[in-house]
Amino acid sequence: MIQPNRSERKPRDDYGSWVMGKMAIRAVIAAHKRRPRKLFWTRGKEEELAEFLKLAKDNNFSTEEMPFSLITSKAGSENHQGLLLYADPIVPISIDRVSPKVGAPLLLLDHIEDPQNLGACLRTAAEMGASAAILPKARSAPLSPTTLKAAAGAVEYLPLVMEANMAQVLERCRQMGWWAVGADPEAKQPAWQAAWQRPAIIVIGGEGRGLSQLLAKSCDELVRLPSHAGLTLNASVAAALLLYEAIRPRKEIRL
Q: Which distant-in-sequence residues (6+ apart) come within 8 Å of 106 by Cβ?
């Protein structure tokens, strides 16, 4: 029986080792990219949990019953649906492994601090067929159980690049042939006029602050999403709209 050691008893948010929520847990098991180690569960709706206990048995990893309050403490949230999976950590990839391709954009998320926002961005990126998402190693929402639940399994299928310096990785992407499109509500050019016929890296700034001045200057063009009410869009909504614009050049889009 494999059990987390003492240092792993609390969620290691930066690695995504702790996963809560039924959709996210199913994805870890189905994707076969990282190994599930142990499933913690609590009594309640046993008929719903039976599926996951069977998955654990079929995939040869252990289970342990645990009080709801203790799972909540480990997950950092009450929204775990009675399940918490401990798995091998997510392994980021190097940006050099991602080749520029029209219609398969990169998504660079510059210090998104809300885990729900980050998870929603990653979920949409995976659904839209993005090549990868680039996240900062610091000053960002971690890959916590809350983030992974909001992503609904997307992190098991979407390659993740984690870098310390967003400006440097953006410049590296541009040297590789990516065309950097930054979201800026003050930009003169509407989103649909961007050069989406090129391999695009979409750059989304953090909540409230938007793009940093350095990243904005590093973009090839800045675009806005026109608003009728004069309000600003949530970062995950802006990311979704720009991702859709980026995939439209594909000759065949099956959503």
A: 98, 130, 131, 132, 133, 134, 173, 178, 200, 201, 202
DSSP annotation of 219: S
- Give the pLDDT confidence score for residue 231 in this predicted structure: 61
Q: How far is CA 191 from CA 9, 166, 185, 188, in A?
A: 45, 22, 10, 10
Taking residues 243-254, report their average pLDDT. 74
Euclidean distance between CA atoms 110 and 46, whole angstroms: 41
CATH 3.40.50.1860 fits 6-87, yes or no: no
Closest CA to 74 of 23, 131, 17: 17
Q: Is the pLDDT of residue 182 over 50?
A: yes
Tell me the domain boundaries of the chain.
Answer: 6-87, 95-247
Residues 6+ apart with CB under 8 A from 228: none
Nearest to 202 by CA among 188, 222, 186: 222
Q: Which of 77, 106, 90, 200 is nearest to 143 (CA)?
A: 90
Q: Residues 211-227: pLDDT tens digits?
A: 889 999 999 999 998 87
pLDDT at 4 over 70: no
pLDDT at 189 over 80: yes
What is the assigned CATH class of domain 95-247?
Answer: alpha beta
Buried b (16+ CB within 10 A) or exposed e, 57-96: eeeebebeebeeeebbebbbbeebbbbbbbbeebebeebe
